[in-house]
Design brief:
alpha+beta; Beta-Lactamase; Heat Shock Protein 90; five-stranded antiparallel β-sheet; five-stranded mixed β-sheet; 8 helices; 12 strands
Length: about 325
């Protein structure tokens, strides 16, 4: 009983199969990974659960597998345990992709902190000096053409310094994102509120169950705004007319899906790389921050091209064990 309690709480997926490769034990993380509750998983075969490969071959090893609750690289470990004298094959899957992303995220945070410090230290005197020079210029008589040129040049210096400051401030959000403060949050009201903010194209909200989730409403709202903004801009680029946002519950998870009818995803490898953007004036921060928020809630953010038509689909998934 103590072992089962420990298995239920650990952050790796654990499965135990009998000699006939029938699932006998699964923990909460395993439920999320397979997208189904325990009562629907127990009794299924490894083949039905797409875990046959995990029961054979070398272990430990790394696997690249797509599950309903997550896609990426997994470290596979295997051992034999006994429950009341009955042998069980124990499979443990650890999400290496998330661990690698966390290391990458910490590296980006360090880079952003250094860049922000150095750039802000340089911007402060630039803005101050340009302001002082504009004041001095106003006190002195110069030929009109020269005075206008100087004033315009100083305005450009000042405005570009302020723009660069705002640019760095947006990246500082990545380095300073706090732990989510979980409070009861009505999913329907949150999603509809975000949909109502967008006026450039029609955003259709397709309602699901009125779930109340323990979440950081401000952070989750920001994540949805960022993803929706991305979908709307893709739709406008392809002269589309509609973005759909809907939510549903399945397999112990809340799924929020945002679908557009834009051009789809051409380069998925750089979607979550800070500073990378294909949009004029873009910062490359929106999707990175949205995924960081989703993962801060124990969930995921995934993007894919739609197989049933043109456009892309973003899926934010959050565990329902945060529900109240």
């Amino acid at each position: 009983e103590t072992l089962l309690k420990v298995l239920a709480e650990i952050a790796v997926a654990v499965f135990a199969f009998d000699p006939e490769q029938t699932l006998r034990i699964v923990n909460r993380t395993g439920e999320r990974l397979l997208g189904q509750p325990t009562q629907r998983l127990i009794g299924k075969t490894a083949s039905e659960l797409r875990l046959t490969d995990a029961l054979t071959g070398v272990a430990p090893r790394t696997m690249e597998v797509s599950f309903p609750g997550g896609t990426g690289r997994w470290e596979l470990r295997r051992s034999v345990v006994r429950q009341e004298g009955y042998p069980l094959q124990l499979i443990v899957l650890s999400d290496l992709s998330r661990a690698l992303r966390e290391e990458e995220r910490q590296a980006w945070k360090r880079i952003i902190r250094v860049l922000s410090h150095e750039i802000n230290n340089s911007l402060a005197p630039i803005k101050s000096i340009s302001g002082s020079l504009q004041t001095m210029l106003g006190r002195n008589s110069l030929p009109e053409e020269i005075g206008n040129d100087l004033d315009h040049g100083l305005e450009v210096i000042s405005s570009r310094a302020e723009a660069l400051g705002r640019f760095m401030a947006s990246y500082a959000k990545l380095a300073r994102l706090p732990e989510p403060e979980l409070v009861p949050t009505h999913v329907a009201a949150l999603v509809q509120g975000v949909a109502d903010l967008e006026t450039r194209v029609a955003v259709e909200g397709v309602g699901g169950a009125d779930v109340t989730l323990r979440a950081d409403a401000d952070q989750l709202e920001q994540a949805l705004i960022n993803v929706l903004k991305n979908a709307v801009e893709a739709t406008l680029e392809a002269e589309g007319e509609l973005v759909t946002i809907r939510w549903l519950t399945r397999g112990g998870m809340l799924h929020i899906l945002i679908e557009d009818n834009g051009p789809g995803l051409a380069d998925t490898g750089n979607l979550f790389v800070p500073f990378f953007t294909t949009k004029p004036g873009g910062s490359g921060i929106g999707l990175v921050l949205a995924r960081q928020i989703a993962e801060g809630h124990g969930g995921t953010l995934e993007l894919e091209s739609r197989s049933e038509g043109r456009g892309a689909r973003a899926r934010i998934t959050i565990p329902l064990d945060l529900s109240v």
